[in-house]
Amino acid sequence: MKSIDHIGIAVNNLNQAVEVYKDILGFEYLGEEIVEDQGVRIAKFNCNGIHLEFLEPISNDSPIKKFLETKGQGIHHIAYKCDNIIQQIELLKQKGIKMINDSPKEGSNNTQIAFLHPKSTIILTELIQGG
């Protein structure tokens, strides 16, 4: 893994998060995107090269909706850049890390992603390649 790509933050109201982080705090707003596969609408901000991604559920079966119902708003995951996500998944599995995704899935901005289970990594962890 190379570096932190982004920190994912679950929110109930994406428009409110955009107002606070763009209009009040003055972070560089990078835009919004919907990732149907994950059931989320995302607003992205730049914070000195690390992105903050605010995640609002768009469906009842979204993992973010379930997270909000059980834990409330807050940090959902940390994502790390990697060069070869398939190789990284296999290496982590060999080291005993429990994966949520055994193979990459489509993420935002033409990326490939895979999640590591928080039982193995303390906090939900995402691998990300591309973008």
TrEMBL record:
Gene3D superfamilies per UniProt: 2,3-Dihydroxybiphenyl 1,2-Dioxygenase, domain 1 (3.10.180.10)
Recorded GO MF terms: metal ion binding; methylmalonyl-CoA epimerase activity
A Pfam family: Glyoxalase_4
Record keywords: Isomerase, Metal-binding
Residue ranges annotated for the VOC domain, each copy included: 3-130
EC number(s) on file: 5.1.99.1
Keyword field contains Glycoprotein: no
InterPro entries: Glyas_Bleomycin-R_OHBP_Dase, MeMalonyl-CoA_epimerase, MMCE/EMCE_epimerase, VOC_core
GO biological process: L-methylmalonyl-CoA metabolic process
Keyword presence, Cell membrane: no
Family assignment from sequence similarity: Belongs to the methylmalonyl-CoA epimerase family.
Protein name, as recorded: Methylmalonyl-CoA epimerase
